[in-house]
Amino acid sequence: MSKVKIDIVSRVHIGSGEILQYGSDFINFQEGGDNYVGIISPRKIMSLIKNDTKALDAWIATIERKKSIIDFMKTYAPKAITDDYCFRIDHTYETLKENDTLQTFIHNGLGDPYIPGSSIKGAIRTAVLSNIINKKNEVENLVNPTRINAKAIEQHLLGENPNKDIYRFLKIGDAVFGNNYENIVRLFSINERETNSYWDTSKSQLVETLMPKDSSVCEIKLDLKAYGYAKKYVQEFPECMSSLNKMFSTINQHTKSLLAHEIKYWQDHINNPNAENVDKYIKNLEIIMEQIQKCKDPSKTSCILRLGAGSGWRFITGAWAETFEKFNESIVPVARPQNQRYSNYNFPKSRRVDSSCKPLGFIRMTLLED
User: What is the pTM of this model?
Assistant: First the structure.
């Protein structure tokens, strides 16, 4: 197994599936001039109030009324500090509101945030699939326009079932983080609209993220030996997967291509009178592009990959369907809810960013020497 260093380039959110309510599930407090969010631990609270039925009733009432747990703890466990009744404490620069909800990051059994190897592998799969599709002409006929997914194309190009899928020979471990604080950030949207500003704050969402400059190391293996034994029974390896070096180069080129398209798209919209903050967004994309260019250094094998929440439709899917002749006619109406309402707009029409207009989900993968 080879080692890969994972560096967080822009905020990353891999959701746990939990959505927490402000006050009863997480709290906001200040300490030493800094602003923090504490994730409430029911188990810790139970250990503090023990068998006090009055306290238990008051706790339930606090949750039902969506009141802050802080006042409850001051009454029924006055000596307790936030660490005594929180799972973890995250840093934030955001001003929280009473109706806020928080989407939490996935954590392992030890409470450490991690990027699952399956998430990394899925993003790599998308990059490689896009590379293969862009070199073939027959794949459009494999798409069922009433059910948009890549299943038929993946079966055709990567393997007709899990036993024949070439990605069984790529193994990636989880990347465990935790050396730095996680950070709570509020997401907004850049949303193309005819009469209102593109800067859309109407559907903001708090998410728990890993921060830039955080890093981890995970294992990766492209098992070419096992593939050699099984190649008569599985899909043929594409050239771009014939080595880790070529695969990393393919990933980097894929990310560069999508990012260049994104920059060009918004440069064409920057003079629209509603294009508030689009200039900031473009500058932040250009910073990511600089990181991609640095990955061309021949002295090391590295690439920029995008994954997780906020990646957007084009990065999640690889955008290969946009090359299809019937993309706007057949695919967009299915992929976009209420498409008739937005048919005058390009697809996709919105992007998720943080309050500084920075995109989410970019990581750097660097292959370490054995």
Answer: 0.91
